Amino acid sequence: MNIFASIERLIDFQFDIVKYFSIRIEGKEVNEFIDFLNRMEDIEGIEDDLSNLLIWIEEIGENYGAVKNRFFRNESIYADVQALPPPRQQMEIFEIPIENLRLYCLVANEKVVFLFNGGIKTADKAQDCPKVGQYIKQANHIAVKIDELFKSREIIWNEDQSDILFDGKLEFEL
After folding, report:
1. Residue 26 in contact with residue 4, Cβ under 8 Å?
2. Does this model's pTM top 0.85?
3. What is the DSSP string of the chain?
4. N or C, which end of the chain has less CB nearby within 10 Å?
5. What confidence score (pLDDT) does residue 68 get?
6. Torsions phi, psi for 25 (to 5 deg)
7. Three-class SS string for 64-101?
8. pLDDT at res. 78
9. In which band, very low, low, confident or very high, does the pLDDT at 151 lie, cut at 50, 70 and 90?
10. CA angle 165, 135, 42 (to 5 degrees)
11. Mean of the pLDDT values across residues 147-163?
């Protein structure tokens, strides 16, 4: 069975420096990032972590840019997929802590980030975790597809590479 997805600009997450996007999988009511937010809102005890994650997304987007090694953690075997929150050292410097909440992303460049899905990490390795393993694997698969869309020029950079351009009706097979 073929499953298709489309790219969605996250209108409420367009900042001076970073533009955020997500993916909507065919048949789902919301994109992957909104699905993540909706699922996490229903879990007791992580309200502060979820709030702080949104602060990180805004801080990165409004003030710093998506610097991979500074603000995104590389906690997977998948080279293209990163995660928020930032590494512990950055959380301590900025005093915006988050425990085990993970949001998987693709940092296309310092100005364009795709936010996917995630959850509460309960194992040392994300890909082995029963709570987030499926999301990091999905994020990797989507990241490969997005890379193919860039290579085929179905997604292109604007002139200063601060945003991406694509047909609003673009669908791609997962």
Report:
1. yes
2. yes
3. ---EEEEEEEEEEE-SS-EEEEEEETT-SS-HHHHHHHHHHTSTT-HHHHHHHHHHHHHIIIII---HHHH-B--SS-TT-EEESPPHHHHHHHT----SEEEEEEEEETTEEEEEEEEE--SSSGGG-TTTHHHHHHHHHHHHHHHHHHHTTSEEE-TTSSSEEE-TT-EEE-
4. N
5. 80
6. -85, 135
7. HCCCHHHHCECCCCCCCCEEECCCHHHHHHHCCCCCCE
8. 63
9. very high
10. 100
11. 95
Cα angle: 117, vertex 123, 127; to 5 degrees: 50
Q: Which amino acid is at 133?
A: G
Residue 12 tokens, joined: 């409420």
Pair of tokens at residue 138: 């999905």
Average pLDDT of every residue of the chain:
91
* Pick from 105, 102, 33, 107: nearest CA to 66: 107
